[in-house]
Amino acid sequence: MANLRSSKTRVRRNKKREIVNKKRLSAVRTAVKETRAAVAAGDKDRAQKAYVKAESALARAATKRTIKKGTASRQTSRLAQAIKALFAK
Questions:
Q1: Distance CA 73, CA 69 (A)
Q2: In this predicted model, what pLDDT tens digit does every residue of 31-47 receive, in sequence order?
Q3: pTM of the shown model
Q4: Whole-angstrom distance, CA of residue 33 vs CA of residue 2
């Protein structure tokens, strides 16, 4: 248990950050899932719109350090490849 005043403040701050990070990570996962579902369904228009949301959410999470920059880059790249393959058909 935290005893010092600064330690207690840090504990409270960490709890707040945890909530924000969980919310942001959940939004990222949902956006990626929607994009993959649209690609699997073969819906080009929906896939394109979902990709834009997913890319934005990934970039935001990486900027805020919720996820690593490389992870966001890799996931964005793989989604882009899936979209490109969808339009190539």
A1: 6
A2: 999 999 999 999 999 99
A3: 0.87
A4: 39
Quote the CA–CA distance of 81 and 22 in Å, as a whole number.
27
Amino acid (one-letter) located at 10: R
Burial of 82 (0-12, 13-18, 19+ CB in 10 A): middle
Indicate the burial class of 4 (C-beta count within 10 angstroms; 0-12, 13-18, 19 or more).
exposed
Structural domains present in the chain: 5-88 (1.20.58.110)
Which residue type, as a one-letter code, is found at position 19? I
Q: From residue 64, how far is each of 43, 68, 78 by CA, in Å?
A: 31, 9, 21
